[in-house]
């Protein structure tokens, strides 16, 4: 069964729209600012998507563009200015940035409750300590769990995560443990036979590899839930880590790519912004 992620994204955006209206009634105009120090076409295109969606929700959006010659100090100073600006409620950084810029330094400069991507050390530490309510979680893991929790309780379930990256796999591990799941993590150094075994023993599989064709359909069985957070491009088309059509035919509940986790992530960014306003 293909999971209808567009319906879930709409539900979340309906919440966002109502929350923005309520903030406006309190005299608050939520504003998101984005640092763009990159020439990556995908990042710049995604920034335009955020700008458009912000407008649809009644959220203010402003981007700050830095060219390749910009120094780390110049970008840091802009972040500090935005931290001090009470009319700015959220800051995101379009990743990856230019190679000479330290992304960790930039992310950690963002004030905790303006860190809408939840990738700074203060938010990641809070999640590690099971203090998610007082933190901002990374949008993609939060979206993946939003989808999962619409289908099934997580507590007590066996979950296999494929991938250990900073933006998805690692925070997913902590967030699943916070929800009392039993978690196995597989990565690039895990043997294929061990990945197959881990999948076979799991109720839920969450993938974040970014390489189409790596995860074989025959490793899955009917009744499992697969949340595919991976994105890659094959013959000019967007693909996930798994073949969602094949898995659906096997009786697996699976998110599609595109129009899957990414759609919910887009909505989750603005849900994070609304949470940030409340935390501030």
Into which percent range does the helicity of residues fall? Answer: 40-55%
Total strands: 10
Low-confidence stretches are none
Intertermini distance: 41 Å
Please give the CATH class of the largest domain.
Alpha Beta
Structural class by SSE content: alpha/beta
Summarize the biggest pleated sheet: 5 strands, parallel
Number of helices: 10
What percentage of the residues does DSSP assign to strands (E)? 15-25%
Give the number of domains: 2
Which architecture of the largest domain would the CATH scheme give at its second level? 3-Layer(aba) Sandwich
Give the C-alpha Rg.
Answer: 19 Å
Shape: globular
What strand order characterises the main sheet? 5-4-6-7-10
Q: What is the residue-mean pLDDT, rounded to a whole number?
A: 96
| Succession of helices and strands | HEHEHEHHHEHEHEEEEHEH
Using brief descriptors, characterize the structure shown.
one-carbon metabolism; three-stranded parallel β-sheet; hydrolase; 15% strand; 2 domains; alpha/beta; oxidoreductase; 10 helices; 280 residues; Rossmann fold; five-stranded parallel β-sheet
